[in-house]
Amino acid sequence: MEKTIPQKARQKTKAILEVRDLNVAFKTARGKAKILEGVNFELFPKEILALVGETGSGKSVTAKSILNLFGNYPGQIQGQVWFDTQDLLTLKDAQLESIRGNRISMVFQNPQSSINPLFTLGEQISRLIRLYLVPEIKMARQENNLTEKQAVIHIARQKLNEVGLTDIDRLLKSYAGEISGGMAQRYRIALALLSSPEILIADEATSALDVTVQAHILKLMKALCQKKQTAILFITHDLGIAAQICDRVAVMYAGRIVEVAKTKSLFENPLHPYTRGLLKAVPKFGKKEDLSFVPGMIPDLVHPPKGCRFHTRCSQAMTICRREKPRRVAAESRHDVSCFLYELEK
Amino acid sequence: MLLFLFKRFAGLIALLVVLSTLVFFFTRSLPGDVAALYVGGTAKAEEIERARVELGLDKPLIVQYKCYIQKLLQGDMGISLRTHRPVMQDLMEKIPMSMELVCWALLFAASGGVLLGVTAAYHQGSLLDEVIKWFTSAAVSIPIFFFALLLQLFFFNVLGWFPLQGRLDTFLEFSNPIENITGFSLVDTIITGNFAAFFNVAWHMVLPVAALTIGPLGIIARLTRSALLDVMQQDYILAARASGISEWVLFFYYGLRNALSPVLTVIGLSVALILLSTFYVEMIFNWPGIGYYALAAIMSLDYTALMGVSLMIGTVYVMANTLMDIVRRIVDPRIK
Ligand SMILES: Nc1ncnc2c1ncn2[C@@H]1O[C@H](COP(=O)(O)OP(=O)(O)OP(=O)(O)O)[C@@H](O)[C@H]1O
Ligand code: SF4
Ligand SMILES: [Mg+2]
């Protein structure tokens, strides 16, 4: 992989995570599916960035690419993911493992199925505490005169308490199947934030929960991350939630980021035709809606549309849109958009 | 757990009652005069009558049934019409011989199958995976009697590496006879220090055990592979990977641990398959076990022996399954 941006220049940017020209393709039975095509965005320290887009637009693939979580089904990944002056995509497994869950954590959509059903919650949190919190274990042992095992349990209690879980003794002995979705997600969040990571990637972390639980979890996540100074990449297809808790919003369509802006700016003055369509579909600012109201369907990514991938559904499409790909331009200050309507204006 | 064991035990008893009743009435409906069979072909009429009274066959069927059940409860399965010995005694002698084959086959099928399955899953999509897939497909689809004959053809006729059939070379039967202690010939020969017989028996066992192993090995390997790959796709593996657990631990610890339960289930099912296969294999390899005994019983309409064999096989099968269930309960907390 070629590093187009020299090391020195990197250190000057303020972003904590920079995704550059990320391309991901998967081999499928029908051919190569070009899921991501030139994804670019940056995450600043302590901010909450929403990544919104309809189902299949590549949000989860983006998230997985950052930590290269594809395991046995590796995609063909190209591009750079800059984190702390290193390109995560060039790291070896062992180096990545020391970042995963430690400096960049993730929570997923289905909290219960994200917990191994054969081990108790206590066993699972203990394993991570032993992995990441060695100094804390030492401290707890000295301060309270505990054995190693007691110290780990002591820390586990603290951490689970922090995410608002109660009846922890029983919980530590429970299995995933025995707790509610809300509790399971609190537990996962506790695991993810165990070592106060710099970045939390929340992939639809609240989508599977019912509305009241969802609100609690959101509040908790936001508060904890503020306290620990953790930046969040908040992936959702719920624009309402994005508007409520995020500082900035990136809109994704068919494997490309089409618009990035401050939340206020994006909702008050959406530029990209796709974003406009989405916002029209949301009846009221801040109300929960799904992103399925833009007419048409997400294109087949084995044979993606040439040029702008949105042209098959865009009411303002021009001839150039069918031939060439729009570049990302700063239409306003800190409001970027990839669309020929604005590229030509300049 | 206790309740579960109790239920299983009650189930076993119920099964045995049903089985013994069925077997009883079924074998009585077979053609042939049992008493005549008992005394042999050239007996006089009064001898046959005496045998009839001796065996209780002159009484009504329902009385015979009651009598049979009563004796069964005392562990008496009657006298074999063919060998003229108590069936129980015959079985106790034959079962260990079969179990010796079954145990080895199960051991090899389980360990080899799991090993192959894990290897294939670990190298998913590679040439090795492809080769294993080929091998296991062949293993599950080849009929066992055909495979047994192939083994004989190749390793006896062509190469001459292994004996055609039997348990012990004839001259060893006289020079180094196997003393019957546990009934397991390999164990007995070791206990008595009869090493000549030990190696000879082991040598005779290779082909029948191979014939019994191949099918279950294929099945276990394929299931292990797919169970592992399925586990590796689960959300909790992704989540564990995202929390920094190393790939090695993910596969060899979480993967194997989570795939264990389905693998154990299929190993349990293999027991039934192997038990069934011993009938062909013992016949083809002239192995003096329960399958061979059952076959001889069928040929000579030895209905008491047949009843005994059915009950025994049923019991062994249920016990093997119960054992597997207990193990599965231990490895999987989700089963309540
Ligand atoms: N390992 C893979 N192999 C092949 N195709 C994949 C793989 N992972 C994802 N895809 C495809 O990539 C596309 C984008 O998937 P992704 O999960 O990123 O969508 P998403 O935006 O997260 O949608 P959702 O809102 O449903 O979570 C989908 O069409 C999916 O089928
Ligand atoms: S580039 Fe063209 S097709 Fe694409 S969104 Fe803009 S106007 Fe529509
Ligand atoms: Mg997703």
Strand content of chain A: 15-25%
Cα gyration radius of chain A (Å) = 21 Å
Identify low-pLDDT runs of chain A.
1-9, 285-292
The biggest beta sheet of chain B is recorded as: none
Looking across the biggest beta sheet of chain A, what order are the strands in?
6-7-8-3-9-10-12-11
Q: What sort of overall outline of chain B do the alpha carbons produce when their principal axes are compared?
A: globular
Overall average pLDDT of chain B: 83
- Count up the helices of chain B: 14
**What's the assembly state of these chains?**
heterodimer
Biggest interface, residues from each chain: A-B, 32 and 25 residues
Gyration radius of chain B, rounded: 24 Å
Annotation, overall tally of beta strands of chain B: 0
Distance between the termini of chain B: 9 Å
Q: Give, in order, the helices and strands of chain A.
A: HEEEHEEHEHHHHHEHEHEEHHHEEH
Poorly predicted ranges of chain B (pLDDT <50, ≥5 residues)?
none
Question: Kindly, what is the distance between the CA atoms of the first and last residues of chain A, rounded to a whole number of angstroms?
Answer: 33 Å
Mean pLDDT reading of chain A: 87
Order of helices and strands of chain B: HHHHHHHHHHHHHH
Number of strands of chain A: 12
Summarize the structure.
The complex is a heterodimer of chains A (346) and B (336). Chain A contains 14 helices and twelve strands.
Characterization of this structure:
With 346 residues, chain A is of the alpha/beta class. In chain A, 36% of the residues lie in helices and 22% in strands. The model of chain A is unreliable at 1-9 and 285-292 (pLDDT under 50). Chain B has 336 residues and is an all-alpha fold. Chain B is built from 14 helices and no strands. Chain B is globular and about 85 Å long. Chains A and B meet through helix 3, helix 4 and helix 8 of A and helix 11 and helix 12 of B. Bound molecules: adenosine-5'-triphosphate, iron/sulfur cluster and magnesium ion (MG).
